[in-house]
Amino acid sequence: MHIKQKQQGVMLLLLLAFLLIGNATRSMAQVTFKASAPAAVVQGEQFRLSFVLNKEGRELRLPDMPDFDLLFGPSTSTSYSQRTINGKTTSESSVTYTYILVAKKPGSFSIPAASITVDGSNYKSNAIQIKVLPPDEKASQGATSRDRSSSESTSSGTATVSARDAFIRAIVSKNSIYEQEGFTVTFRLYTTLNIVNFGKIQFPEFEGFMVEDVPLPVNQQLQMERYNDRNYYTADLRKTLLFPQRSGQITIPAGNIEMVFSVPSGKSVSTFFGAQEVMVDVKKNLTTNPLAIHVKPLPADKPASYANAVGTFTLNPSISTDKVKANEAITLTLEISGTGNMKLIRNPEVAFPDNFELYDPVVDNALNVTTNGLTGIRKISYMVIPRYEGNYAIPPLEFTYFDPATNKYKTLTTPEYKLQIAKGDPGSAAASDFVNRQDVKVEQDIRFLKTGEITYLSRTNFFVGSFAYWLWYLIPLTLLIVLFLINRKQARENANVALMRTKKANKMAVRRLKTAGKYLKEQDKEQFYNEVLRALWGYFSDKLSIPLAQLSKQNIESELSKQGISEELVGKFMHILDTCEFARYAPAESDAGMDRIYQETVETIGEMENKLRKSVR
Fold first, then answer.
1. CATH class of residue range 306-422
2. How do residues 252-287 score in pLDDT, each as one tens digit?
3. pLDDT tens, residue by residue, 295-332
4. Architecture of domain 497-616
5. Among 1, 280, 310, 368, which residue has the fewest nearby CB atoms (within 10 Å)?
């Protein structure tokens, strides 16, 4: 009895120890300590170095940073969030330690990992790479000339944005490539000004290329980049992966985008905080540079097994079984993995025996879009059914691709598969017909008898002249008359362009707000505000019959006032526009609630629709 009690006590202690070790392991695994800073900064300008810890910690130790001066820190802030999903409530908290630094000299530098103590254990952050750009040598002169130019332009009633202050570049990863070889084109915005709004975006057509869009971060932050001895804030507007479909010189034409910038007017006003410079909004049409791409033809000595594949690939063949009965399926699988034009690869032809029934191959792509091409696995499955017993062989298969790195064709080969096919089971319903055919040894002069119910047709009944015969004429004639009347009515309504745009304005706004509601549920902040702005601008463009490119807050207020809309309702709409634009371009500083903005937008459009209907009547 005592021995049994001792054994139970030992088991209880072991179980308790395992639980404590498991909890300690989970607690340690949940601690995250992450450092963040801008990827590029300017020499002499302040920037923030932040460390985020998801638990309370102590004894934060910074690494040695001889290339940076520490001006301030740490500034500590705590955040807490709680959410409920499917009845399960989870909470998260984090502590942020912020330091203000200044770079001493230009170059690329590394900030080593920092360390902190949490619950008696030491944790290290990630290291950070920072590129320090030299300051603009002619920044002060350029600013003076811009101020003078802005002052002169404002005095004459217009303001401009110079081509050096804001522009878009089309950047290619390669200029000379082979046919079917992948390369990327990046449309990058460069600006020294504050962005107010985006207008119409028209990227160039990629005629002669297969196009795959490279996904960009949803909440993309502006990055510093030096170009032509000047520092700019940059953002990638679009990145595409292209595969040329023919050789020769292919030109990618220019694209354009309309943008509104906030520029200094050269005037200032006195405020409580002192003199403040007056800023004005200026619309600028930015055009990308056209690109000439030289596409080299593939070498002429293409092997017969060339599968239209360009890149770097490996081949992994497999077969489901080599011993089956007749009328049972066999699957040969080819897995082509690597990087290149994966979607354009032709399926290799497998030489199966003549009496194998072959089905269409099933292709399954698991691919990712990268800057070097499509990377992943292309799985091709060939299913065949042998109909007779015997010993058969599937000969080796050759897969040839062109490798741009070596400028040569390379061939991959599969092994030979020997198959042993036994006689099929005659008891199987699915296989009985084939088994009987096999036993009979069908020749060209032997045919199987058809069985089933016999049907007879009366020689006195004729279709011509019957009631069903005339219905075949009356029904199409009636439908034709109805469609003609409907089309004529629709044509009259379509002729009135203004009426059609006015009718569809509310429908289009509701459709876009539904899309915004989807992004609201997903907590996709940037896409949500984009859709709300598109809904509002599109609604008033259609309702007021003003082209979107000419639409502005000023002419909206003017047109609504002419139609008797109250200033209070117009003010609500302007407040929503200002809030969405601020949250879109300065997400870190926006306090607007997405739920509140969504409800206000729906209510304001509904109220505005009622007012406009009454004014039209």
1. mainly beta
2. 888 888 888 888 877 777 777 777 777 888 888 888
3. 999 999 889 999 999 999 999 999 999 999 999 999 99
4. Up-down Bundle (1.20)
5. 1
What CA–CA distance (Å, rounded) separates 602 from 108? Answer: 50
- Residue 154: count of CB within 10 angstroms of its CB: 17
Contact 344, 308 (CB under 8 A): yes
Q: What whole-number distance in Å separates Cα of residue 126 and Cα of residue 473?
A: 80
> Would you say residue 19 has pLDDT above 60?
no
The CATH number fitting domain 139-296, selected from 2.60.220, 3.90.1570, 3.20.20, 2.60.40? 2.60.40
**Amino acid at position 211, single letter:** V
Q: Pull the structure tokens for residue 52.
A: 């985020």
* CB atoms near residue 608 (< 10 Å): 22
Q: Output the CA–CA distances (angstroms, integers) from residue 565 to 505, 572, 576, 616, 617, in the order listed.
A: 17, 12, 17, 11, 14
Q: Which of 438, 403, 412 is nearest to 424 (CA)?
A: 438
Answering whether pTM is above 0.85, one says: no
What 3-state DSSP class applies to 425?
Answer: coil
CA 599 to each of CA 512, 561, 604: distance values in angstroms, whole numbers, following the listed order: 14, 24, 8
Radius of gyration of the chain (CA): 36
Listed in order, strand segments (DSSP E) in 371-520 are 373-386, 390-394, 398-403, 408-413, 417-422
What angle in degrees, to the nearest 10, is found between the helix axes of 467-495 and 497-521?
A: 90
Select the CATH number that applies to the domain covering 32-133 from these four: 2.60.40.10, 1.10.3720.10, 2.30.110.10, 3.40.50.620: 2.60.40.10
The whole-angstrom separation of Cα 271 and Cα 277 is: 10
Domain ranges in the chain?
Answer: 32-133, 139-296, 306-422, 497-616
Closest to 288 (Cα-Cα) out of 214, 161, 189, 370: 189
